[in-house]
Design goal:
Number of helices: 3
Mean pLDDT: 93
Strand content: 15-25%
Largest sheet: 4 strands, antiparallel
Low-confidence stretches: none
Shape: globular
Structural class: alpha+beta
């Protein structure tokens, strides 16, 4: 099934399921604050594994105890698609305090 950009309404509806995520122009974004640098680094490794499984990758920024993601779908001109929300949900599920951490 081909990937298609989501409408603004679809993006807003799906963001309601991910309250700590936001749409910034043509990207989904989220920053996690963890207890230590080691925890943040470990989270980056787990996110990389999920991205490889989905064959869909975000831009990741590792800070001292933070991990920031921005994601969109390059193959449709950098728009937000269902793939971006799939990745966001998977990352949210592995984040400490947000599911199966």
């Amino acid at each position: 099934m081909p990937v298609a950009p989501l409408s603004q309404k679809e993006i807003e509806d799906r963001l309601a399921e991910l309250p700590d995520w936001s749409a910034d122009a043509d990207r989904l974004t989220r920053t996690y604050r963890l207890g230590t640098h080691f925890a943040a680094t470990a989270m980056v490794v787990h996110i990389a594994q999920v991205q490889d499984e989905l064959d869909h990758h975000s831009d990741l920024t590792l800070g001292y105890n933070t991990v920031s993601l921005t994601v969109n779908t390059h193959s449709v001109g950098g728009a937000i698609t269902d793939l971006d929300f799939q990745l966001a949900h998977r990352v949210e599920d592995l984040a400490p305090g947000h599911g199966a951490a």
